[in-house]
Design a protein that fits this description.
The chain has helices spanning 2-48, 50-68, 72-76, 83-141. The chain is mainly α.
Length: 153
């Protein structure tokens, strides 16, 4: 009789533990999805500025071409900043923008992978919980046959 009672306690403990793991896993999934939404919003904001950087790149290319044909003086005249420094700064801004898109996209892909793994964990925990609940239901459906050993027909 103690063995059955011990088994009952184990099933209840298993169920409670699995329910806690499920709650923790769902919380983790929610946090990952919130992070993904933040990263996607960041990517959307960056993408919204893409046209600005395309035009800046075209301007830099045009100014470099102007310098190649020996006509940079037509644009720069006698400015305080040196033309190569200004172009280098603009190219650095473009590069920084492109790197921020790559970083955000890498983070997005990483979060998608983590969300996928978390969903697999949740599926596994749901399966385990279903198994424990079914075992508990089977245990409840069992009939204990009790007889006095000295009574024989």
């Amino acid at each position: 009789m103690y063995e059955v009672r011990s088994n009952n306690i184990d099933l209840v403990d298993d169920e409670l533990l699995l329910r806690q793991k499920l709650a923790d896993s769902e919380k983790t999934l929610d946090e990952l999805e919130d992070s993904l939404a933040d990263v996607e919003a960041q990517l959307e904001e960056l993408t919204g500025r893409k046209q600005q950087f395309i035009v800046l790149d075209q301007v830099c290319s045009s100014l470099e071409l102007l310098d190649e044909v020996g006509a940079a003086h037509l644009f720069w005249e006698d400015r305080d900043c040196a033309p190569p420094e200004q172009l280098e700064r603009a190219r650095a801004v473009i590069e920084e923008y492109n790197e921020s898109i790559v970083r955000a996209d890498d983070e997005r892909m990483s979060l998608i992978g983590k969300i996928s793994a978390q969903n697999l964990t949740l599926d596994s925990l749901h399966y385990e919980l279903t198994e424990v609940i079914e075992q508990e239901e089977q245990r409840r459906a069992e009939w204990l046959v009790e007889r006095d050993s000295d009574e024989l027909p």
